[in-house]
Amino acid sequence: MYCEFADKMEEACGVFGIYAPGKDVARLTYYGLHALQHRGQESAGIAVSDGQGIKLHKEMGLVAEVFNEEIIDSLKGDSAIGHVRYSTTGSSMSVNAQPLVCSYFQGSLAVAHNGNLTNANELREKLAANGSVFQSSIDSEIIVNLIARYGQSNIEEALMKCMIDLKGTYSLVVMTEDKVIGVRDPFGNRPLCLGKLGKHYVIASESCALDVLGADFVRDIEPGEIVTIDRNGLKSRRFLALSETASCIFEYIYFARPDSDIDGINVMQARRAMGRELAQEHPVLADLVMPVPDSGIAGALGYAEHLGLVFDMGLMKNRYVGRTFIQPEQNERDLGVRLKLNPIARLVEGKKVVIVDDSIVRGTTSKKIIEMVRGKGAKEVHMLVSSPPVMNPCYYGIDTSERAQLIAAQKSIDDVRKYIGADSLHYLSLPGLYRALGRDNGFCTACLSGDYPIEIPREEELGKHILENPHQHRREVR
């Protein structure tokens, strides 16, 4: 699927779960998925259990496109889980939409997964060799097969055994006929939180999904924790506990909604602090500070506030342009940016302008934005980025380009500046990012630093080894 903002990293998925007998759980899940729509726009699904079996509806499209009143009314039950998807592992097709529902030794089972298994190929080969059948190309189906393999145990014990086998990142919401279970990987790489709606419990990727329901935020689910919700209430066990966690730092930079709190950090406040740190490191005395909406707004506010500069929305966003159904040809891709954003000539004309964005991945969108702003008469255009350069691909559930397409990995900062056409280009330093977040540990910064805290896929490790040691590799294969 073409994304008009190819300069952005894309999140994999959002998950939601609720156990609330007597409530319209499908409708509540629908609202929760609406709040998580930013995490995935390719497909949406809801599975509901009535205590006897599980009913599922899922399709390609946005939440509002997949569900209507008739469908929601048909999904009656005591508990539900939901999923919105952006594909990283597995192609974009309806068979890969989630939740996944199956029957196994203990009954019916539904699974919704956010993350990426780094040993997916290895596990798939082993399971297939032992007779497992796969209907989709997503690594989430591996988790379903593993649960079924350990199905003679109760569901919590089966999940604990799965966690021993799984490598990579995952936040899971699992539903049986009478339980909803949340699981967060031992590194806590993907977010997952717990809320309470009256006497009932809710699980979601982000706290903004709790807010839309009027649910109270209880806490973040801990790395390596399994939380079970059933008629007996809430039960928790911390199965795999690590001394060091690795929460994805890009949740705070770009992915999460600004009104979410993740692992004790408010996203909006963190992004504003990133802008202030950027202003301390790279002050530009401009006539106007303007963000690339929407993800650059908080950083631009912090930047302008710290330096006492004028902040304004010099780029107007067309909010009626969502997914691009008529995909432009390669030579028309600039049209996607112009459809989405338009500079306000009277604000930028004759001005020394600072544009603040959260990140630059390929540089194509930044280049077009600067061209448009100059075309409206800006005297100078300076690009400020409230994160360090994206230098490395992610293997943990974020869709980054190959390293060859990451502009900061291929060019010096000055060469990137020349490519995008800015008068100056400045990135926030990694220490500055840590200061904005209030701590310098517990984060995964692999895409920024190249320090991969979690084992990466074997084939990627081999490829990395070949790139770093081509002559040694030639000797080895001989």
Overview of this protein structure:
The N terminus and C terminus are likely disordered. The protein has 19 helices and 23 strands. The radius of gyration is 23 Å and the shape is elongated. The two termini are 41 Å apart. The protein has 478 residues and is α+β, with helices and mostly antiparallel strands. It folds into 2 domains: 233 residues, Glutamine Phosphoribosylpyrophosphate, subunit 1, domain 1 (4-Layer Sandwich), CATH 3.60.20.10; 185 residues, Rossmann fold (3-Layer(aba) Sandwich), CATH 3.40.50. The chain is 33% helix and 25% strand. Helix 9 crosses helix 16 and helix 18 crosses helix 19. A 7-stranded antiparallel sheet has the order 3-2-4-1-10-9-11.
Q: What's the helix and strand layout?
A:
Elements: E1 13-19, H1 25-35, E2 43-49, E3 54-60, H2 63-66, H3 69-74, E4 79-85, E5 100-104, E6 107-117, H4 120-129, H5 140-149, H6 155-165, E7 168-176, E8 180-184, E9 193-197, E10 200-204, H7 208-213, E11 216-220, E12 225-230, E13 233-238, E14 247-248, H8 250-255, E15 261-262, E16 265-266, H9 267-281, E17 288-291, H10 297-307, E18 315-317, H11 334-340, E19 341-343, H12 345-348, E20 352-357, H13 364-375, E21 380-385, H14 407-410, H15 413-420, E22 424-427, H16 430-437, E23 443-444, H17 446-449, H18 458-468, H19 470-477
Parallel strand pairs: 14-23, 17-20, 20-21, 21-22
Antiparallel strand pairs: 1-4, 1-10, 2-3, 2-4, 5-6, 6-7, 7-8, 8-12, 9-10, 9-11, 12-13, 15-16, 18-19
Helix pairs in contact: 5-6, 9-10, 9-16, 18-19
